[in-house]
Amino acid sequence: MVIANFRPEFTPPWLGMGNVTLLTLNQLGRREVNELIDKAAGGVTLPEPVIDQIVAKAQGVPLFVEEITRSVLAAAMLEERDGQHHLEDAGASFIIPATLQDSLVARLDRLGPAKDVALTAAIIGQEFSFELVGAIVSLEPALLAEALEQLVRSNIVTQRGEPPKAIYNFTHALVRDAAYQTVLKSRKRDLHRRVAQTLESQFPDLARTEPEVLAHHYTEAEAVDRALDFWRIAAERATASLAHAEAIGHIRMALTLISALPEGPARDERELALLTLMGPAHMALEGWDSPTAHTTYDRARMLAGRLGRIGDIFRSLWGLWMGAHSAGQHAQAGPLVDEMYQLLEKTEEPEYVVQAHHAAGSQMHAEGKLLRAKYYTDQCLSAYRIDTHGNLAMTYGAHDPGCCSLGMQASTLLMLGYPDQAHEASLKALSLGRRVNFQTGIAHTSRYRACLCIMLNEPGLAAESISEGVKVSERFNLGPYLQPLALCDGWICAFNGNIGEGLRRSEQALAVIRATPTAKYQLPMLTAFVGQIRMAAGDIEGALTLFADALHLASGNGELFYVAEILRLTAQAWLAQPAPDNSQAERYLLEALDASRRQEAKFWELRAASALARLWSNEGRQTEALSLLAPLYGWFTEGLDTRDLKEAKALLDELHA
Question: Is the pLDDT of residue 397 over 90?
Fold first, then answer.
């Protein structure tokens, strides 16, 4: 269970989910405020008129109740009567701070020399160590320990451990803010610089693991160059940890600083280095077709061209291609691949060779040009080296070229008629996905493995690998994988026996995908997966509607690799109606045969031929059925134990009988 609290102005993205309960925390009532006053007063009895003023000013806010009470006690004279402490003059008029800020500032002013320590600590942050604050302030360790002890006694900070290893925290963010806001701007700037320089020189481990802390201090110190260096390092570190939202936040901080720099090559260099990190981060969070990523790559391409940087031009082209390709805009995606190969004429850098083949293989696969897809994936995998290219995901679409090409190659090999080789490539992809430094490798290869097993109608095999990808996608909120994997998980659930639950899950995921205007990557295939479940559930009209939608999507975006199978499924739906329509089914099966032959997709051709041969056999056309299916089955040299080839063999045996 997770409990999170937040202020009213914040709108959590998880509200509305079925497993989330929202509880509104109201202001404290009079009874609770009185109890809090008693606790904060520490045994001192306050007169009712003073309590009334505290209640009125605090308005039920716990921190304000405590702060005003402490302010009153600090300003008052106490006397002991009947074994208890009372205000010396219960009828005296006390100045109640008008705001929480006034109360906190007044308490800081009463600290004496310890105030400077509190102000310096506020510059460091909400949490600070004895060692760090000691390196900033000009106090002997004993005097510093005494000052910090006073802050603890005054309930300004809390302490863990003992000096010199003690760690301190401000009791509340507003306490730290009050201290921070009292520091003059010039001194604030100087202190931030001293903190940053001290961290960099004396605390290298923190500088390495939390570069954003140094970036923040250098930013506040107006040391722009050092701030930009550390914002970039922080973004790279966050990206490597799949903390993409955090990385984008760091980059935006840096871009704000860059926008104030004078125009020129130096500024362009700084911005370009950040944009090449920002594009993949947006893709990882929002999907490969992220409009923000597109804008980022457009800007990067312009800057790279202005600087004459071939490598950055290539990376920008690749990012623009990835966005167009995954959005189903293949008319725009194809020419971008051509531009990448034109750049390869000017450089033989292995990084660009691998990524050009990666893009071309994926593009040809989508368009159903399967032999060319196999050629380019072969070329990519031949050039790929995990030790050299295993970190390219940071600058290329947030996924690994080797993982992607192996996944694409598996699908391509299956459609070309090599199921055993397809399985081998798919399992290699899963293995590589676990070895690369990027966790997206697991999500990426799990998605492709699940889809391959679904294409084979093997829910058991699909179930073996999908959970790992789902966990990674949920943990890191990976947009390109989360919903497609959820849809595949629904298909697996349905065809493992729970059709109702599987249909619910898959349709929910499909609705989310469809609600994203640019999320068109493999959408025809994913839509057909849900159509299969509807057909299994007996909703034939619903299935036909989804298959028609899938065909319409494919014709609109040029993603043709699954068209032959969608046509076959449509034919099966016509035959599954209460009054089967054989003529419609035959028409779609003939179209499926034609589409598969144009693509040299022997596996799709076998499926369509088997369905058509069965239809003809039922109509008494055994000779035609045999002449269609026998030579096609005889072509296959592997995969004879797959469900499709076993069913084709059984049908041939019937036709021969």
Answer: no
**Equal fold, 262-433 vs 562-657:** yes
Q: Closest Cα partner for 279 from 298, 256, 259?
A: 298
Q: Looking at the chain, how many residues does it have?
A: 657
Q: What is the DSSP letter of 44?
A: E
Instruction: Answer yes or no: are the C-beta atoms of 393 and 436 closer than 8 Å.
Output: yes
Helix (H) or strand (E) holding 80: strand 78-81
Interatomic CA distance for residues 538 and 373, integer angstroms: 37
Element (H, E) at 12: none
Q: How far apart are CA 626 and CA 616, in angstroms?
A: 9
Residue 247 to residue 242: CA distance in whole angstroms: 9
Q: Considering the domain 262-433 in this protein, what is its CATH number? A: 1.25.40.10
Q: Which residues pair with 79 in a beta bridge?
A: 86
Peptide bond into 13 cis (omega under 30): no
| Strand ordering across the sheet containing 84-87 | 44-45, 84-87, 78-81
Indicate the SS3 state at residue 554.
helix
| pLDDT value of position 92 | 47
Neighbours of 526 (CB within 10 A): 27
Q: Tokens standing for 488?
A: 């595949």
Neighbours of 273 (CB within 10 A): 18
Tens-digit pLDDT profile for residues 599-609: 999 999 999 99
Q: Give long-range contacts, CB 8 A cutoff, 24+ apart: 512-518.
A: 512/483, 513/483, 513/484, 513/487, 516/287, 518/287, 518/289, 518/290, 518/291, 518/323, 518/326, 518/327
Task: Provide the sign of the torsion angle of the four alpha carbons 274, 277, 281, 282, taken in this order.
Answer: positive
C-alpha distances out from residue 589 to 91, 96, 99, 469, 647, Å: 97, 85, 78, 35, 17
Q: CATH number of the domain at 562-657, please? A: 1.25.40
Strand partners, 128: 168
CB 400 within 8 A of CB 438: yes
- 578-595 pLDDT tens trace: 999 999 999 999 999 999
Type of residue at 561:
F
Sequence spans of domains, the chain: 30-98, 262-433, 562-657
